[in-house]
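Re: the 163-residue chain
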Amino acid sequence: MPRELGIALPTRRATRRLGAALAAALAPGDLLLLEGDLGAGKTFLVRAIARGLGVPSAVRITSPTFTLIHEHVGRMPIVHADLYRLGLPDELVELGLVERVGSDAVVLIEWGERFAAALGGEGLLVRLSLIAEGRSARLEARGARAEALLERMLAAPGFERLR
């Protein structure tokens, strides 16, 4: 049974706190699949995670909608992909994403849920939603590695401020 967690994100600060808690828990090889409507905060959350992983604020973190992949250097390599424009799972191999999952980098993929099976079927799904009170996030751990990531996040310093 997948493990799930819901988090209210009434402010941008709350989203930054979620990003910091995720960054504190991430390890090389981890995969996050970010889903949500346009404007739900996927790239904003990626930016918060990247800052938590040590990417300097002088480095712009933008959606790789047209380039498909951006790479950043923090305390570990970060691969940020946007698969909105991708059509077939075979294209993941051409992009080199399949090899990066489970290896040296943290892989953060916007619009990646439809490619979850091609990426190994595991990972932490982060579904962001716009609600009357701001935003919310539903985190779903798929697989043992993602369950361990969720456990580390729950124990991360500052996570209690999200509850």
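The beta strands are 3-9, 31-35, 69-73, 77-82, 106-110, 123-131, 134-142.
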